[in-house]
Input
Amino acid sequence: MTDTETSRVTTDIDYGKNGKQHAYLRVPNSRDNSGWGTLLMPITVIRNGEGPTLLFSGGNHGDEYEGPVALMKLIRELDAAEIQGRIIVIPGLNYPAFLAGKRLSPIDGKNMNRIFPGKFDGTITEVIAHYVYHQILPLIDAAFDLHSGGYSMFMVPSVMIHYLEDEKQMADTVAAMRAFRAPVGIIGEELDTAGMIDTAVEEMGKVFIGTELGGGAILTPDSIRVAETGIRNILKHYDMMEGELVTPEWRGKAEARIMEVPDTGCFVMAMADGLYEPFFEVGDEVPAGQPVGQIHFPETPSHKPMVMTPGSHGMLWSRRGPGMVEKGDTVAVLAQESKDW
Ligand SMILES: [Zn+2]
Output
C-alpha cells in the first residue's frame, strides 16, 4: 500500500532505506493564490541497520523553539554511521504555525496537539496529524515531542510524562524520562488529554516523552543545551549511540529532580480579567498558603487586587508570561517532590 492510497500526504522518504534522507512531506494546500499549492514540510530520516525507531518532533506548537533548533542542529550534525537504528525527525510538526511563530495554525486555526488521530479529509492540521498517526507512529518504538511554554507561559526546563496503567510501559517511560536528564522530570496529569499526540502514542502501548523546555517564545542558551543533551542522552539510553549520559551536574547545575503534578488542583487559574503580578519566579518554592500573584484592575485602579492562592504548595513549575490575563487563564502550576518515583 502506498502513501497516496492511505493519506493525502506524499513524500519521497523511504523509511526502510539506510543513510540520511532530507525530504518533505507534501501536504495539499489549495488556496486563492495557488490552486494546486502544496505545503512542503521538512522531514529527515536517519537510519543505520536494525535497532529502535524513535520519532523526534518540534514545533507541535509554533511558538516553542528549543525543539526545532535542537532538531535542526541534530539533522545537520548526525551521520547515519553514528547511530544504530532509525530516527525520524520533524522539526516543525505544525509547520504553518511554526513558520508564523504562533501556537495554532494560521491556515485553519487548529491546535496540532488537540486533533490526533487527525482526519483523511480534514483541514490541513488534521491531514498532517492523520499522516503522522497512520504512517509514522506504527513504525516507532518511542516518540519525543519537544515543547516549551510558548508565548503564554514560562517553564522550568523539564521533561514530562503521564501516569500510565500498564506497569511495563510506565517503567520504560520513567527510564527514558530519567535518561533525558532535564533539570526536572515531571510526572503529571494534563488539564485536557483528548486529541494529544501524547495520548495517541500512549494508547499504542509505546513510550511517549514530552518536554517543556523554556517559554515566553524566546530561546536561552541553557534551554537549548537541555534539549540538545537530552536528545543525545536518549540515543545513548536506547543503545543507538555510544557514550555516557550528560547530566545537569556535569553542566554545573543542580542534580536532576523527579517531581509530580498529581492532580489538576496544582493549576492556578486567573479568576478575573486584569494585569497579573507574579510573586515568584519559576523554580522557586511556594510555601503552603502563600499567594503566587495578584491581579490588578486597570479600569478601577483603586480596587484592591485579587490575590491568587493555590490549594497546595510546591515548586513553581510554570507561570504566566504576558501581563494581561483573562479569567480562566492558567497563571501558575505547582509541582511537588515525588515520593514514589
Ligand atoms: Zn506546546
Q: What stands out?
A: Residues 221-237 form the longest helix (17 residues). The chain has a mean pLDDT of 95. The chain has seven helices and 19 strands. The first strand starts at residue 10 and ends at 11.
